[in-house]
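quick one
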Amino acid sequence: MADAASAPKDPETIRREDYRPPAWFIPEVELDFDLDLTRTLVRSKLDVRRSKSAEAGEPLVLQGDDITPASVKVDGAVRNDWTLVEGDLVLPLTGAAHSVEIEVELDPSTNTQLMGLYGSNDMLCTQCEAQGFRRITFAPDRPDVLSRYRVRMEADKAKFPILLCNGDKVAEGDGENGRHWVQWNDPWPKPSYLFALVAGDLVANSDNFTTRSGKPVELNIWVRDGDLDRTNHAMQALKDSMHWDEETYGREYDLGLFNIVAVSDFNMGAMENKGLNIFNSRYILADPEVATDADFDGIEGVVAHEYFHNWSGNRVTCRDWFQLSLKEGFTVYRDQSFSADMGSAALKRIEDVRILRAAQFPEDAGPLAHPIRPESYQEISNFYTATVYNKGAEVIRMMATLMGPDRFRNGTDLYFDRHDGEAATCEDFVVAMEAGGEIDLTQFRKWYETPGTPRVSAKLSHDPQTGSATVHLTQKIAQNGEKPAASELLIPLRTALLDPETGVHGGEQLLLLDQPEKSFVLEGYKDHPILSINRGFSAPIILESNQTAEELAFLSAHDDDPFARFEAMQQLMTGYLTAKVSGTPVDRDIILLAVAKILADPTLDPAFLAEIILLPSEAFLGDQMVEVDPQAIHDEREKLRGKIGLQFEKQFRKLYKSCAPTEFSLDAEARAKRKLRNVALGYLAASFTENAAETAFDQYREANNMTAMQGALGVLSHLEADERSIAFEDFYKRFKSNPLVLDKWFSLQVMSMRTDTLKRVDGLSRHPDFNMANPNRVRALYGAFTGNQVRFHDPSGKGYQMVADMVIALDKQNPQTAARFIPSLGRWRRYERGRSELMRLALEKIAAQPGLSKDVAEQVFKSLA
Ligand code: ARG
Ligand code: ZN
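structure w/ zinc ion:
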């Protein structure tokens, strides 16, 4: 343990149950910005009103973080009787309504946290969610205080020709000494976290959209000169999202202007500020030469996500940060549904479940587990998690499954109508869904307060005499590292019983498991049917079934639910590999046979084929084991990959040829071919039957798109061949001026299985293009590396040390991004003894640093506890 002297004093824990309504409301806010990179003056005028719930004589408390007031006035008179209490401005006020004016001076160039007002390249931009506004000026920085904002921005016209803020531009003009100004007015009351401004030398891709009630909207995507021709995909995604939200949820856009700005330095993906979304440039910029198909999808999804927040988040916002999943879970569900509608619903579901299992299940099983509506936090930035976002989306999806599309829509209509203009709670949402959707969600509510992933066991028995099949279900949850205990969530399981000869079934049933244990008797089965359960992944659970490898193989060949079919194959492979790792004898032929059937199935969509023959990831396999041995998992998985590659070499060669690229297109067929070709290349390389380096190198040289290039480099990265270094050097020279592509260059190298990867991580951390101040670059190097199971978990512990040292250094400039790396070490209890101890030591080293941020301290101490 860290010694008491160096440990930070216990940071304050904020609890959900302690919520109190605001003592003061601020109906109107006027802001005046005199902007410059190193010296910005912020003048604010708050129209403050004492609320009925305020205690008699309660002073005005305005949050501040790392700022000091240059002057404070009340009703026009200078006041000096204020105090600063832990950064917050406390001002005694006697009346029920006052006008408070405050001046603050900022130096955005020194703001390395990227929260509040900061400089990125030569532009100025803001990030206020969750608590960045208090780094700009003093305010009741809480989401249940909604204000109408009027903002004046002034700056040097040559340096900052474009001045953007929320709402509508109402006036502009030139000032003296080459300065200019713009006046903005946002008619929609909003919490401070949705405030944004941008000043810079930007150009726009401009377009327009007419809402279905006929209102014109001007659309702009602002980027740096030179990036303009990479904004078309984002623009199309924006227009598609606007149309989709009208069709699917009946929601229209509500301003005449919608601006998006791309910035290179950004902690997260993007931000839904009212009328002025600010994006990490990686979710805006794309063309085939620099972006993979996955990048194109990411852009479409994130543009939609932020746009959808205009209703689920902005028009109806959150009462407090414990309600974060109210807007995030719902909005992720909305963007997932949108992407499913725009492309293949089956592939989208497979991808979303993969993300949930890779990011959320481990979180739910580790020391940082929390319910989708947390009960307490120290630093709210730590709760922008896969649980709040992705499990939150699964909870909304289950509601949709329970209600069906029409009742679900009635529920969301009622929710939006009832709470428009309000700061709502998750409970408000559930109540509206109950009323609008005509359903009782009393038991369902447990999903909001229960951490951990439920384990559902499913057993099928059959009585040939009566023809009845019985599905016997139980549910359990493990919490706080304890043994799983009976649970009582409402778990909707889409289920079908397949004929054991034909694979046909007579219709799906929705089984509602609402007790710790329950049996469902289904009639009319002459022969013992095959159980297909949790189809479409209808509930975010871990399924434990007594299905045999033969049954799984049967489902992988016959199930008509594409997710279930994919899942059966994954379970089959997972069962084999986990048995091998733990030294249990197990039959491999059944997997080879199942793969053979898949490869011979002419009806399969090539994109689905590419998914279903992929082996489960090393991380996922580790999650299934009691004690993780990354090396053993890696070795067994590589052996199976090699065997499949060898066995089906002819088929993979054929696929590789038949998927050869033609002219670039983003249509489904062309994308499917790119995907399948990369998967085939991977298997051919794994089989050692051909000169993988040569084939991959040819693919690299001939590629007319980034998907093919990245696929080739991914294969080369693992090899000991001259082609590897030649290709990586060439790639660097070609793309060194494009930061988003250079990120790929960093990532691909540290995802290598080669034994010298640790040395490479160390080398790349000293590369002139590595930059600790840029979160994308930090994630490209260290995020990719911590995902490399076999090398990050090198038994020497050097991987852990490198990450710990990086966290310690980064915490001094950007705590939020630094804290994101703690979970990779925080899973120390899951690993075999040697590694476990080394991971713990790395955490202890971080814990012992003086002056840790709240962000990192919360994650580290919870991980060690
Ligand atoms: N609301 C944003 C989104 O999900 C995330 C912003 C969170 N940013 C942060 N610094 N915590 O789209
Ligand atoms: Zn969001």
